[in-house]
Write a structure and sequence with these properties.
With 61 residues, the protein is mainly alpha-helical. It has one helix and no strands. It has a domain of 26 residues.
Length: 61
């Protein structure tokens, strides 16, 4: 029977990104999400009382 020894690697204690970069990234995500909700609410207000959204395009022009 052969015995195989495996060296254990030390666990990484550092973080993948600095806290400042994480805060900037999450702030950008929140801003994009807020803008998406503003667009969604604006479209919902213009939709009227008819069912469905057929023929409704994004107001990007």
């Amino acid at each position: 029977m052969r015995t195989v020894t495996v060296e254990k690697q030390p666990l990484r204690t550092g973080v993948l990104m600095p806290v400042r970069e994480l805060a900037v990234a999450w702030s950008l995500i929140v801003v994009i999400a807020a803008l998406a909700w503003v667009l969604t609410v604006a479209q919902a207000r213009d939709m009227g009382v008819e069912p469905g959204t057929m023929g409704m395009a994004l107001p990007l022009s």
